[in-house]
Amino acid sequence: MEKTIAEPTHDEDNRLNSDFVSAVVDAVADGDVEGARALVAPLHPADIADLFELAPGDRRKAIASALHGMIDGDVLAEMNDWVRDELMEALGPQEVADIATMLDTDDAVAIIEDMDAADQREVLRALAPDDRAAIEEALGYPEESAGRLMQRDLIAVPEHLSVGDVLDYLRRNEDLTTDFWEIYVVDPSHRPIGTCKLSWILRTPRSVAIADVMAREQTLIPVDMDQEEVALRFQKYALISAAVIDAAGRLVGMITVDDIVHIIQEEAGEDILRLSGAGEGDINEPIRYTVRTRLTWLLINLPTAMLAATVVGLFDERIAKYAVLAQLMGIVSGMGGNAGTQTLAVVVRALATNQLTSSNSVRMIMRELRIAAANGVALGLVVGAGCYLWSGVPGLAIVFALALFINNIVAGLAGVLVPITLDKMNVDPAVSSSVFVTTCTDSLGFLSFLGLAAMWGLGS
Amino acid sequence: MEKTIAEPTHDEDNRLNSDFVSAVVDAVADGDVEGARALVAPLHPADIADLFELAPGDRRKAIASALHGMIDGDVLAEMNDWVRDELMEALGPQEVADIATMLDTDDAVAIIEDMDAADQREVLRALAPDDRAAIEEALGYPEESAGRLMQRDLIAVPEHLSVGDVLDYLRRNEDLTTDFWEIYVVDPSHRPIGTCKLSWILRTPRSVAIADVMAREQTLIPVDMDQEEVALRFQKYALISAAVIDAAGRLVGMITVDDIVHIIQEEAGEDILRLSGAGEGDINEPIRYTVRTRLTWLLINLPTAMLAATVVGLFDERIAKYAVLAQLMGIVSGMGGNAGTQTLAVVVRALATNQLTSSNSVRMIMRELRIAAANGVALGLVVGAGCYLWSGVPGLAIVFALALFINNIVAGLAGVLVPITLDKMNVDPAVSSSVFVTTCTDSLGFLSFLGLAAMWGLGS
C-alpha cells in the first residue's frame, strides 16, 4: 500500500479529522486508556489542544484523566480559554502548578489569570517562590497590557563586550533561556541602548565590539502599553521581538512575535463580532454567557425598532388607505441599512488599524458622502424605474426613488460620523456604532418615504 | 526647556500627527524642498509610507518629487497598494527597478505584481538578469500563494557540518543574507531534514554536529499553498520562519513571520468587510472602484428586499384594515435580522479560524438552536407583554410574541446552516452568507407575523 501525502489524522484544513477524534473519544469511553494514549502520543501539542476543543464537552474530563501526564504547558497554552478552565478543574492545583513551573512567565500567566481567585491562590501557593514572585508581579500589571504578555527570561549584555565575549557568555551559562531571537545591550542602570539580531552576531568575527553590531534605533514597549497598541507596533515596524521597559526606562522583559500573532488575529476578528453584538463569539463559551451577551444586544436594539415603528405609526391612516406604502417602505429602510453597514465596516476597520486619523478624517467623510450620492442616484434610478413599470403610478415611483436617495445619504453620513465621533469620545466604535446607524437608516428611511408620500398626496 | 516623552511628530496612536503632515505638504507646496526633506529625514520608513497615505491624494506626486532618493524599498514595501501604484507612475520604470534590486524577492514581487502588464515588462527589462529571473519565477506562482511570499535568500547547510563549521561558513561568505532567524539543514538533494534556531547554535560548543542541534520535526510549506493556509500554520505552530519546498520536496525558499503578520491582519479584517459587502474596504482605493463594489452588493440585495415586499403584498387587504400590522412587522423582521447577524458573525469567524470543522458542526448547529430558542422566548415575552400594555389587544400581543420567537429560530438556523453549507461547497461564507440569511429573516419574519395575524383573524 502506498502512503498518501495528507496525514491520516488531519483534514484538508490541517485540523484533526472527525474519525480520529471519534477514535480517541471511543477508546476512552471503552476504558482503553492505552489505546487512546497511543493515538495521541505522536501529536503536536497544538493538535492535542485541538483534540479537546473538538471532543464533545462532556467527554473532555475523561479524556484528560486518560491522557494524564501528556497534557503539558505547551498544550494548555494553545488551548481555548473556556476549554482550558474546564480542564484545570479536573487537574487540581498541584498539577497546574507543576505545569506552570515549566512555562515562560507569559504562558503561565495566561493560564492562571483566568482562574477564579480561590483557585489562583491555591496554584500560586503550590509554586516555587521565585516562579510565584514572577507570576504575581505579572498579575500586578493591568489585563491585556505588555506586562502580562512579556517573558522575563531574556539575554541582556553590557555594551563593552565583544562578539566573542557574548558567545562565551551564552555557551557557559547553563541556566540562560534557549529560545530568543535578539539580545539586548544595556547600560549600567539596565536601560536598553541597542538591539542585536542573532544573525548579525553569527556573521561577525569574535573580536568586534557588540556595540558596533547592534542597532541603536529600537522600538521600546512601555510595560503598561495596551496589547492592541503593542500589536500595531510589531506590525508597523515588522518586529520579531521587542524590549519592555518600566517607567524608569529599565529593561524588565521581552515580547516575541509569536504571542503577538494571536493578538492580531483576535483583535481583527473581534470587530466583526462586536459590530454584530455577538460578544466574544467564542464557540466554546458556556451557553448561558452567550445567551446573556446576545440577548442584551437584542434588547438594546429594541428601542431602535420601536422608534422606527412609531415613525410608521404617524402615517397609519395613509397606509390604511394605500397599503402599497407598507409594502415598499421596508425596501427603503433595508437598502439604507445595507449601505450604512458597508460604510460602518470600512470606517471601523480603518480606525482599528490606525489608517483613519485626524489628518484624513475630513477627507474620509467627503469620500463616503460622494460614494453615498453615487450609489443613491444609481439605486434611485433603478428602483424608481422598476416601481413605475410595476405600479404605473409616476408619483409613487418618484417618491420611492427620492426616499432611497435620501436614505443612502443618511446611511453614508451616519456610517462615517457615528464611529468617528465615538472614537473621539474614547468609546469602542465597533461595540456601539451599529445601533445608532440602524436607528438613523430605519427611522429616517420610513420618515422620508412616508413623509414624501404624504406631501405628494399619495393615497388621498 | 525639557523634552517631552511623546515624539512631537506622532499622535497618541503612533501615527504622524496632522500638524506634521501639513508642515510637509505646505513646505512642498511653497517650493521649500530642503525644508520638506529636513522634516522627513529622521522618519522611519514605515512613517514615510504613512506620510504619503495621510497626505491629500493630489499632493502625493509633488511630495515624491521633493523626496527624490529618500523613497527606498522599505518605504514602498510598507505603503498601501493603491498609494504605491500612484507613486510608481510618478517614479518611472528605471527608478522602480533600482528600488526592486535592493529588496528581498518577496518585497520586490509585492511591488511589481500589482503593476499593469506593460509597466511590469518595462521594470523587469531594467533589472539585472539574476534579479529578473528570481522575480519572474516568483510571478509564475499563483497570486496569494507561498511562492509569492517567500524569499530566496536563506541559509542552508549540509548535515555533516559542526556548529563551528557553520559559524565559519557564515562569517566567511560576504554575500550571504544578513537577516535570518533559523537555518535549514538539507540532504544532498537539497531536501530539508531539520531546522535550527540561531539561539541553539549560539548556546552550543563549536565541536557539536549541527545535526545534533537541529529539530527534525519541522513544518514545511508547499510552494503552492494559499497564503491564508500558510498564516494558519504559522499561528498554530508559533513559527518564526518556515522552509518552502517544491513538489519534489526540495528547499526553494523561506517565509518569515513579519510577512505573515500582515496577512493575518488582512485576512481577519476581510471577513467584516466581506460580510457587509464593502469589498476590500481600502480607504485609499479610487472612488469609482469602491462605488462599483458597493453598488453591486446593494443591487444583489435588492431582490431580497423585493421578495420581502412581495410577502407583505400578500396581506395588503388586511394591512389596509388594520394598519398597526404595518407598524409592528418591521420589529419582527428587524430583530430577526439582528439575531441572524450575530450567529453569522460567530460562525464565519469560527470557520475562518478552523475552529469549526466537520467534527463539531452538528454540535454547533444544536448550540445555535438552543441559543435562538432561549433568546426567542425571552424576547417574545418582553415584546408580547409590552404590546399588550400598549394595544390592549391580547390576540395581537400573542401573534407578535409568537412571530418573534419563530423568527429568532429562523435566524439561528439560517445563521449557522447557510455559512456551513457554503463552506462545504467551497464558496467563501463571508462573501455570500448575509444575503441568504437576510432573505430568510425578512421574508419569513413578515410571513410568520402577517400569516399568524390572518389566522387569528386580526383586523377582520
From TrEMBL, chains A, B:
A Pfam family it matches: CBS
Keywords assigned by UniProt, alphabetized: CBS domain, Cell membrane, Magnesium, Membrane, Metal-binding, Transmembrane, Transmembrane helix, Transport
Transmembrane segments: 295-315, 371-391, 397-422, 434-458
GO cellular component, one term: plasma membrane
Family: Belongs to the SLC41A transporter family.
Principal location class: membrane
UniProt-recorded Gene Ontology molecular function terms: magnesium ion transmembrane transporter activity; metal ion binding
Topology of the protein relative to the lipid bilayer: Multi-pass membrane protein
The protein's name in its UniProt record: Magnesium transporter MgtE
InterPro entries associated with the record: CBS_dom, CBS_dom_sf, Mg_transptr_MgtE_intracell_dom, MgtE_N_sf, MgtE_transporter, SLC41_membr_dom, SLC41_membr_dom_sf
Residue ranges annotated for the CBS domain, each copy included: 214-272
Task performed by this protein: Acts as a magnesium transporter.
Domain of life per record: Bacteria
Subunit structure: Homodimer.
Location in or out of the cell: Cell membrane; Membrane
